[in-house]
Known about the structure:
The complex is a heterodimer. By secondary structure, chain A is mostly helical. Chain A is 64% helix and 5% strand.
Amino acid sequence: MSFERARFIATKDFLYAIRGKEALLWIFVMPIVFFYFIGTVIGGGGFTSGGEAKRPLAVRAEGSPGFLVAELERRLDENGFEVVRTEDETTFASHGRRLQIPDGFTERVLGGTPTPLSLERREVDLSSQLDEVRFVRAVYTLLADVVAAAEAGEEPTPASFARLAAKPRALTLVSRPAGERRRIPTGFDQAIPGILVMFTMIVLLTSGTSTLVVEREQGLLRRLASTPISRGEIVLGKWAGRMLLALVQVAVAMLFGALIFGLDWGPDVLMVALVLVAWAAFCASLGLLLGCIARTASQAIGLGVLTANVLAALGGCWWPIEVTSPAMQSLATVLPTGWAMDAMHQLVNYRAGPASAVGNTLLLALGALAIGWLAVRRFRYE
Amino acid sequence: MIDVERLEKHYGSFVAVDDVSFTAAPGEIFGLLGPNGAGKSTTIGCISGLLEPTAGRVRVLGKDVVVERRAAREQLGVVPQEMALYEDLSATENLRFWGAAYGLRGSTLTTRVRDVLATTGLADRAKEPVSQYSGGMKRRINFGCAIVHRPKVVLLDEPTVGVDPQSRVRLFEMVKTLVADGTTVLYTTHYMEEAEQLCDRLAIIDRGKLIANGTLEELRGQVGERDLLQLTGHFDAAAVEQALGAVDDVEVVQVEPDALRLALRDASSRLPALFDALTTAGSEIRQTTLTEPSLETLFIKLTGKELRE
């Protein structure tokens, strides 16, 4: 076995794969596009909590709303909104979150008149409900202070609210994460590892599979068989070419995830890389096996797309596996995508340390070896 | 040289190559002639190492293709029947890849690629993707990819199928140039004219068996100076044998209810006498074809069927 000859085959396959514009699109561009879309839909840059960035909220008050507007704004700020006060209609309309306060707001609230507040959002994603919760909490604390001031026999004024705020609270609620996670995950925290895992698999199970079938159909493998390169060297080279393709894709996606979407891969980035190497190895073996099994290029692509999407969905690449039923969560524990995603979550989201991902990484590596062995047995020149 | 010794290749109960032996010498074009499915490509597959022989032995320049696989393959260049080319790549890129697959690197590879482009007449279109080439051009670069590493032995498996006359002439010239340099060429074809025109020695193969082997003259000698007369109509085997037994120097090659094949000297002048004898014996003659001595007549004589059947 000459690794030099295998390297020759691997390099040729890799360079051949990235020649086409379509391949470049699917390997390097589409994952980034999906990072953005899926990440935005499931929460984008994340919710405000603790020291995280606040979510902008434009506030526009009509006529003479009174001093309670400032009180409401203070409570909105305490609940994670970055209040942008504007009276200009165009500026107001340009914001993604908008709160419209009616004329005579203070007077109506203090007079006990039902007063509608209008909160609008341009985006509808999984964080919408949390926005509502926080907004309602701000409004209720304002109303509670109005009631408290009245019960204390004070006239509701900015000064009486300031005195009330200075008093110690009878009841204080402290909340903190129950798990290891110290920060509420952003949409990108879930989407980027998930899409990365999925696209690595899709590329290797479609283009990686079909190119092998096309080479067989066109007699290129037969011709290769007549060269001094042995069968073992050819198979190893084909596997390594796919592996190389996956590693480049993973590296680019990790870099873009960090630079464009601000994803923090966590303190154990080397372990993250190791998990993804094991995942790439698994996908390279599976792509090679499917290429040995499929009879036509269209069959290979169909088989690849079906396998990749089913495994991605069931393994938790499309959504956090925690939101699925217990049965689905159990199923994910026996799927390679589930192993990869669990390892990624442990390292990136829970910061649980390298040891937390060792088991899943070994499973992926063993899977790569087992499927690679099957591919070697099934490899055929014609 | 190529030395094939009692080669057999079985697929289950089907025998694709059955006890085939021949030797091709350096500087010689050895033709393997036979109809489609005769076992030519399987023989090539066994010589090139793609297929494992069931029995027998193949040596290339003295190296056993099974035992000394790599050493044997380093001396081989195979021109496959199909266009085994990377269509998205240019001629230069294809040549560079196949040259590198045989271990060529650096300036040696660059020089050889340039030489082969010149030999194949594709230097001016060397950078275009092969997908934009005509069928003949693809055939030429398909050939070029097999000789870029200067092999001592070249196997050509039906290299002229679907080739225009101009490209065919060019291909023949390239083959002759190789042979002039001392290369051994094994050339399989089912085109009799090609075999007659190109090959120094020939073997005829049918249903996996080698049925004739020798120089063109030796093979023609097996037919003798006899013409082949093919008749269609209605024939009774016993009556035909009896009627023609009385006619001098006529060999019944094959007789079937609707066809009769005869080998005889100077057939054209003897047709009236033959027709009389056959019609007297109750035969009905509808069509007559007369063929002068050739490999085709030899093949028909040996197998009872035409080469293209």
